[in-house]
Structures are given as C-alpha cells and as structure tokens.
Amino acid sequence: MIEAPHHAKLVDSLRFWNRIHIRLTVVYGIALLFVLTPAAAFVYQAAVRAELENLWARIHMTTVSLAAILDGDRIAAIQSADDPLRERLRVDLQAVLDQERELASVYIFRPTERPNELSFVVDVDRRAAPGAYGELYDGTPYPELTHALAGPAVEHDAVADAWGTSISGFAPIRTRTGKPVAIVGLDIDAARVEQMKARLLQIAVVTYLAALGVLALVAFVVGRALRKPMIQIIDGTEAIARGSLETRVALERKDELGTIGQYFDRMAAGLEEREFIRATFGRYVSEDVARKLLADRGKVASHGEERDVTILFSDLRGYSTLSETMSPNDILDLMNQYFEAVSMVVSAHGGVILEYLGDGVLAVFGAPDDLPGHAERAVRCALMMRERLVTLNREWDASGRSHSWRERGIEHLRARIGVHTGPVVAGSMGSRFRMKYTVIGDTVNIAARLEALNVELGTDILVSRETFNASSPESQALATAHGDHVVKGRAQPVSVYSL
Fold first, then answer.
1. CB neighbours (10 Å) of residue 430?
2. Where are the alpha helices (DSSP H) in 35-134?
3. 85 touches 74 (CB < 8 A)
4. What is the predicted pLDDT for the residue at 286?
5. How far apart are CA 386 and CA 107, in angstroms?
6. pLDDT of residue 11
7. Alpha-carbon distance values, 473 to 148, 387, 468, 479 (Å)
8. What are phi and psi of 479, to 5 degrees?
9. Domains in the chain and their CATH numbers?
10. What pLDDT is stored for residue 313 in this prediction?
11. What's the predicted TM-score (pTM) here?
C-alpha cells in the first residue's frame, strides 16, 4: 500500500470548520440567499412604476377638474386675441400654473375644420414663449391629444414638441349642452420625472449599500481570519521574487493557509540553499558556466562540443617583480582588484573567464553559449582592458600602492594580451571526483603564444589574422600588421596584428 503524501495528510486532518472553502461556501451562500442585487433592482423598478402611476393619476384628476370649471360657452364665444374673455381666461390659467409648481404649462386648444389640427386659444408656459391666439398646432403625432374631445387622456411616455419634452394630460371642455368645444391640456416637464427617478435611485442605492454593510459585517470574521496570513504570504512571495530568499512567513494556523505557509517556508529554505550553492559555485567557475551546468543538470559535463570561438589570453608584465617586493597578502589584494576589473570588462563584452592562471586570465567568447560577433567583442574587450588598467594605475599611484614597484623600475603595470579565433572543443574535463569546464585545442595555444609574442614585438595587444578578418572595419582600422611569425609549438607561421 502506497502511503499518502504528508501534505495530503495535513489537509485531511483539518477540522470541518477550519477549512477555508467551507467558510467561504457558508458566507457566500448567505449572500446568494438574500439575492441582494436583484431584489434592489426589483424594488427600484416597482417604486418608479408606483410613482409614475401616481403622477398619471394626478395629471388625469387635474385636467378633469380644470375642464369641469371652465365655461365652454364663453370659450366658444372668444373671437380675437384682444377679447376680454380671453384675457380673463389667461389670468385664471396663470393662477393655476402659479399654484401648481409641478406644472410646466397650461393651455386651451380649439379644433379646426381640418382633421387633427388645433389652434391655440390661450397658453401659459414657464419654459418658453406661449403659443399665440389662433396659432395652429398639428396634433397628428399625439393621439392622446387628438382624441381628447371624446374624453380625458394622459400620455404615459415623455413627448417632445417645440415647447420641450413633457408628459401631458388632456380633457374636453364642454358647453352647457354637453358639446365638446375645446381641449384643456397641461404639461409636466420630463426633467421632473427624471428627478423623481434619480431620487428613487438614490433611495435604492442607499438601501443597497446599507444591506452591503450588513453583509460586510457578516464577512468580517472570515476576512479577519484570511487577511493577515494572505498578506504575509503575498509579502513573502514578493520578497522571494526580489531575491530575499531568507524570508519566512511562519504561519501558525490549523487550516489550508497554515499548510501553505509551512510549504512556503520549506520552499524558501530550499531556494536559499540552492542559491547559496549556485552563488558559491559561480565564484569558482564562470557565472555563465555555473548557470548552464545547473540549468542543464550536468549535461554539459557529459561530452564536449566543437565550437568556433575567440580566445583571449592576458598576462601582467613584471608580475615576478611584484611577487618579490610585496607581501603575499598585499599581492593577493592587488590581484583581486585587478581581476575584478578584468572580469567586469570581459562580462560586459559577453565573454566568459575560464581560469585565473597566477597573473594570467584565460577568457573565451562564444562558449558555453553562442555569441554572435565574438571576434569583434574580444577585440573590443582587449582594448577596454588596456584602458581599465590605465585607470587602475592612476588609482594605485594616488594611493601610494605603486611605490613598491616604481622603486624597482616599473613605471606602470601593463598587460600583454593575445587574441585568436578558431575551433575548440568545449566541455568539462577531469575525473568523476573533480571536473572543470574548459576549452582545448590549437586555438587556445595560439592565443597564449600571441600573448608571449608581445615581448618580442614590444606590443600590448596582438591578434591573429583570423581574428582580424572577423572583426569590424573600425577595429581593423586600428590594427597594425606585423607579418608572419613562427610561434612555439606550431610549424606554420601566424600572421599577427597589433592594436
């Protein structure tokens, strides 16, 4: 029988209420039970409907009441705008408008001989200039208006005309014999309806927010239980992402978050240990090599690979003299300062330092990873190394460190550099107990011989024809040809150029 993983046991051992998903299910189940949002929407719509029905009823009652008190015989007798009866009628309608602040306008129409065409008898309006006596009004778009001679009617939707957008009500004005001779109408501005809706919406929103507040109180217990550990985990994750691998969340909880915290801390400890190994490994071999070995899980060590690279070999002039005039600690400190400057320059140009050989440096451009333009990069690196050594000499002069070798006739420390481009075999070499990543082949030997040839030619930097041909025109313009030279360990001469 296969034993369940330890983390599975921890989760299964949690009490029922200690499980986060149970708590969330209960809390959000309560929220869904109340159906808060649909209920609020339903209440708002019902309230708007009730207010509109109340408004329509008030309009109907007002128009019917107003029609009942108007004298149809007198209205039918009005013949001109200057008729005193019309002026008294206008004053009466203005009094109605002043009393009912909700109304936007009150007016009286009389039918004409043409169907659906009406003419103004009198009009009072808050919004715009009133209609003039006898001014025609086309009632075709407004069926409630054109049918108002038969009985009272109210528009349920806002309607727009030249005087504005409004909801209107109409009622017939009759003579003593009951004959309809005119229509009284009144308008309520649609903006008032929108204000009413906005007020109801505000009430609904306040009610909704109050209910949300109650729900927030219900969720407080769960939120309080979740917020702090979640923030700890989030902060810990962010710290790990920043590289602070010593971070621990240390959650003392008996739920899923506590389990996550335990495994988070274990993960952080593992990452911290791996980073320590990688960083330590990277100090004894190239950072690029260390990263590749770790990423490939040692595949680099299983076999070599042929690569076309550029090798840079450098050596300090007068190192033996330095060793004689300085204490071991001082020489170690000096070389560490020099190597740090060299490594930064090599890394900046994409190179990889494979070895420090006493005062020498072996660097490769194009391994363990491909590097386009590796010859040009190596040339630029050699030039920058020379410039950086000039700066170091100034610093050593300023600090007095150069006094010991100046007394022995060494004005400044200088480096000899040899650069050659060609094929190598790159891979790990050694035994199963100890290995190192390196490159081997004639290309490495030639770079070392070119470094030594600087002594004979009195130069600082020598590159081979292969490197020269692979360099940029700008770099080639800096080079001086020195012809062919036979180097130790090689039968055929090597064409060299100085920089």
1. 11
2. 36-69, 72-77, 84-99
3. yes
4. 56
5. 101
6. 45
7. 98, 21, 9, 10
8. -90, 150
9. 40-195 (3.30.450.20), 298-498 (3.30.70.1230)
10. 94
11. 0.48
